[in-house]
Specification:
The complex is a heterodimer of chains A (109) and B (139). Helix content of chain A is 0%, strand content 53%. Chain A contains no helices and 8 strands. Chain A is mostly beta strands and 109 residues long. In chain A, the strands form 2 sheets. Chain A has a 5-stranded mixed sheet with strand order 2-8-7-4-5, with no helix packed on it. Chain A is elongated. In chain A, strand 7 and strand 8 form a beta hairpin. Chain B is of the alpha+beta class. Chain B has 2 helices and 9 strands; from the N terminus they run H-H-E-E-E-E-E-E-E-E-E. In chain B, the strands form 2 sheets. In chain B, strands 1, 3, 5, 6, 8 and 9 form a 6-stranded mixed sheet that branches. Chain B has a 3-stranded antiparallel sheet with strand order 2-4-7, with no helix packed on it. In chain B, strand 5 and strand 6 form a beta hairpin. The radius of gyration of chain B is 17 Å and the shape is globular. The termini of chain B are far apart. Classes of the chains: A mainly beta (109), B alpha+beta (139). At the A-B interface, strand 5 and strand 6 of A face strand 6 and strand 7 of B. Strand 5 of chain A pairs antiparallel with strand 6 of chain B, so a sheet runs across the interface.
Chain lengths: 109, 139
């Protein structure tokens, strides 16, 4: 597992039913592209997060396939519908098989 | 008039813009990636909005935003990178808008291309030229 991976997610605490909300996510990860070389000229092996998904109550919001061209500390911003109270679940999949998860509950006013 | 640095910069960028910023070095790999995504179907222009900065000072983090109403998938490509693929957004039933923002790496001045697969099976694309001051490939 890559060290110091910390997901951060910003979701409103509540919304009106049927509202559209903006979600912002950031995960700290060095996203080694596999293109760089170390001081001895050896290629540093690729180590990135290759997939990010967001689900609301088990239904998919967005599913992103990441390539090495995504910046260090991958950031995503997108919009979701909130038909009812529930929980957003965020999952990041690392090249090394690690899975990072976090969840945020949202209430309906 | 002395050829000042500013004068040189202004005329230099003007000439670049006039040349259409053509950097077709790795265009074939990009075309292959588009063909793999569309399955060879024709790609229309328009229907996709790709927002990228005109000039990016740091190629390591270039903020981009795509918006394609009615799209089910959007693929983002950079035609001047060692590998053209950047990201693929797939939208689910709970996505309110077919849009997303992220930050990408660009190795140098090049075009960023977004190809959207619409829900009716057609494809559309948008393209934006980004000038990069410092490339984002390390090394």
């Amino acid at each position: 597992m890559a060290k110091g991976v910390k997901p951060r997610v910003k979701v409103p605490k509540s919304a009106a039913a049927g509202d559209t909300i903006t979600i912002k996510t950031l995960i700290s990860h060095k996203m080694e592209s596999g293109q760089r070389k170390d001081d001895d000229g050896n290629v540093i092996p690729r180590s990135i997060i290759n997939r990010f998904t967001c689900e609301f109550n088990g239904q998919n919001v967005i599913d992103v396939a990441l390539e090495p061209a995504i910046s260090t500390n991958p950031y995503f911003e997108f919009e979701a519908i909130v038909p009812e109270a529930g929980e957003f679940k965020f999952t990041w999949y690392d090249d090394d098989g690690s899975v990072y998860e976090t969840a945020k509950a949202i209430a309906v006013e | 008039m002395a050829l000042t640095r500013r004068y040189f910069l202004v005329t230099g960028t003007g000439a670049l813009a006039a040349a259409g910023l053509g950097l077709p070095a790795l265009a074939s790999a990009t075309d292959d990636a588009i063909a793999a995504f569309t399955g060879g179907a024709p790609v229309a222009d328009g229907g996709v909005t790709l927002t990228a900065p005109e000039i990016a000072e740091n190629g390591n983090t270039v903020p981009i935003e795509v918006d394609a109403p009615g799209a089910s998938e959007i693929i983002i490509l950079a035609d001047g990178n060692p590998l053209p693929g950047v990201a693929t957004f797939m939208f689910g039933p709970m996505a309110a808008a077919r849009s997303g923002s992220t930050r990408i790496r660009l190795a140098g001045t090049q075009n960023v291309i977004a190809v959207a697969k619409m829900e009716d099976g057609t494809f559309a694309k948008a393209q934006a030229a980004v000038k990069v001051t410092i490339g984002g490939c390390g090394g």
